[in-house]
Each structure stands twice: as structure tokens, then as C-alpha cells.
Amino acid sequence: QVQLVESGGGLAQAGGSLRLSCAASGSIFTINFMGWYRQAPGKQREVVAGHPTGGSTYYLDAVRGRFTLSRDNANNTANLQMNSLKVEDTAVYYCSAHIAGRPPIWGQGTQVTVSA
Fold first, then answer.
1. Would you put residue 82 in left (φ > 0), alpha (ψ -120 to 50) or beta?
2. pLDDT tens by residue, 58-84
3. Which residue of 47, 55, 88, 114 is surrounded by the most CB atoms within 10 Å?
4. Listed residue (61, 31, 65) closest to 47, CA to CA
5. Helix/strand/coil for 105
6. Under a CB-based contact definition with an 8 Å cutoff, are residues 93 and 82 in contact?
7. Do the beta carbons of residue 49 and residue 41 sit within 8 Å?
8. How many CA atoms lie within 13 A of 3 on its CB side?
9. What is the DSSP-derived secondary structure letter of residue 44?
């Protein structure tokens, strides 16, 4: 059983920063993808940033230039550095990972709230 543990959610002021972290743990596995998604009330879940292992990181247009996804492949982690936060970034953020030979897995979700 592979699990994703998320941390770093919370409250920030507009223009401020937060850092989300996602760590995968469990039995032996190979991660082909890690990324962060978000879902605001009344809106569809959308990918914020994703990184196919060995490939290029991609970003949601609305966060490009402000958010940075970094990977620690050895430790199977994905960090999302969120700078210049906007109120519109308020959402529940979910970490996701694709494990070789297994269905995608998701974290529990962490609330990010940005105040004006």
C-alpha cells in the first residue's frame, strides 16, 4: 500500500507564499508522475503543476511564473512552492502520483486559503 502524505497547507496573505509538500511512502514502487491539483468550491478539479518522471514540468496557466514544482525522486516527494499568492488560489490542493503498474493515488487534500 502506497500512501501520499501532504503538508504545508494553511492561510496566507495575498502576495505571500506557501509551500506544499507531498511524500509518498509504502512498499517498493516506481513513481512515473507526481503533481498537484486543486479544486475550489463549484469548480472542477484542475492540475496546478505536474511532473512526469524524466520529463518536463507543466503548469496551469493561472499559476505559471508564480508556482514552482520540484521533485525529490530519491525520496519520492513533490514540493509546490507558491509565491505571489492570489485570492483566486484558494482551494483544496491534492497531491497525486502515478505508480507503475497501479492506479493513480491521491492525498487527502490540504486547504489553502489566501486572504486579501
1. beta
2. 999 999 999 999 998 676 899 999 999
3. 114
4. 61
5. strand
6. no
7. no
8. 5
9. -
- Residues 72-100, mean pLDDT to the nearest whole number: 93
Look at strands 3-7 and 105-106 and give their pairing. Answer: unpaired
* pLDDT at residue 72, as a whole number: 87
pLDDT tens string 18-74: 999 999 988 767 899 999 999 999 999 999 999 999 899 999 999 999 999 999 867
Q: H or E element: which one contains 68?
A: strand 67-72
In this structure, the number of other CB atoms found within 10 A of the CB of residue 20 comes to: 25
For 63: left if phi > 0, alpha if psi spans -120 to 50, otherwise beta; the answer is alpha
pLDDT at residue number 26: 85
Q: Are strands 77-82 and 10-13 parallel, antiparallel or unpaired?
A: unpaired
